[in-house]
Amino acid sequence: MKRISFFMFAMLIGSMSLFTACGDDDDDDTTPSGIVAGTYSGTLVASIEGQVVANEAKSLSLEKNGDNAVDVVIKEFTLNVVLGNNDPIPVNLGDLKVGKCTVAQKDGKSTFSGTENLTGVKVPLAPGLEVTADCKVDIVNATVEGNKLSLPIDVAVSMDGEVLLSVKVQYTGTKK
C-alpha cells in the first residue's frame, strides 16, 4: 500500500510540473524605440513639384538603435519613376538607411525625425541618361499611432552644393 501511495504521489508531483505556469514570456519592450520597432507594409508615394512620379507598395523596417532612437531601413530600395509620358525609369538606391532618428512619445503617439546625407547617388534624368548627385534625406515628424506609420520624407538632390531637385515622399504603412 505504501508503494502504491508513493507512486500516486510521484505521479501527482509529475503531473503538476506539466501545468506549472511561467511568467509572461513575451519580452514587451516598452522603451520609445521598442514600441515602434518592427516591419511595416504600405505604400510609398513620391512627388516632384506636385506631380506624382512613383506610387508603389513597399516594406520598411524601424530598427531599434538604443532606447530612444530607431533606424529607418528600406532594403534593396528601387523606385520606378515616371517622368512625363515616358516609360518608368528604375532608380536603385540599394539599402537605404536613415540612422538614429530620435523617438518621443506623448499621449499614445510616437514621433521621430532624422537626417541622412547620401553621396554618389545615380539619378536618372531620362532613359539612358543619369548624373551622380548627393541627396539629403530628411524625415520630419514621422508618427506611429497604434500599428499605423505615417512617414513624410523630403529629399533634396544636389550637385556641387546646389539643390537641383526636391522630392516629397509620403510612406503610409501598417506594422506586421
Could you please describe the fold and organization of this structure?
The chain has 176 residues and is mainly beta. It contains 2 helices and 8 strands. It has helices at 2-18, 32-36, and strands spanning 38-48, 51-64, 69-81, 89-106, 109-126, 129-145, 148-159, 162-175. An 8-stranded antiparallel barrel has the order 1-2-3-4-5-6-7-8. A hairpin with a 2-residue loop joins strand 5 (109-126) and strand 6 (129-145). The chain is elongated, with a radius of gyration of 25 Å. The N and C termini lie far apart (59 Å). Mean pLDDT is 82; it is low at 1-26.
Keywords:
176 residues, mainly beta, eight-stranded antiparallel β-barrel, 2 helices, elongated
How would you summarize the topology of this molecule?
Blueprint: H1 2-18, H2 32-36, E1 38-48, E2 51-64, E3 69-81, E4 89-106, E5 109-126, E6 129-145, E7 148-159, E8 162-175
Antiparallel strand pairs: 1-2, 1-8, 2-3, 3-4, 4-5, 5-6, 6-7, 7-8
Instruction: Give the neighbour order of strands across the main sheet.
Output: 1-2-3-4-5-6-7-8
Radius of gyration: 25 Å
String of helices and strands: HHEEEEEEEE
Please report the distance between the alpha carbons of the first and last residues: 59 Å
Biggest sheet descriptor: 8 strands, antiparallel, barrel
**What proportion strand?**
over 45%
Summed up, the helix count is: 2
Shape: elongated
Please count the beta strands (DSSP E, at least 2 residues each): 8
pLDDT average, as an integer? 82
Quaternary structure state of the chains depicted? single chain
What would you call the structural class? mainly beta
**Proportion of helical residues:** 10-25%
Model regions low in confidence, pLDDT < 50 over at least 5 residues: 1-26
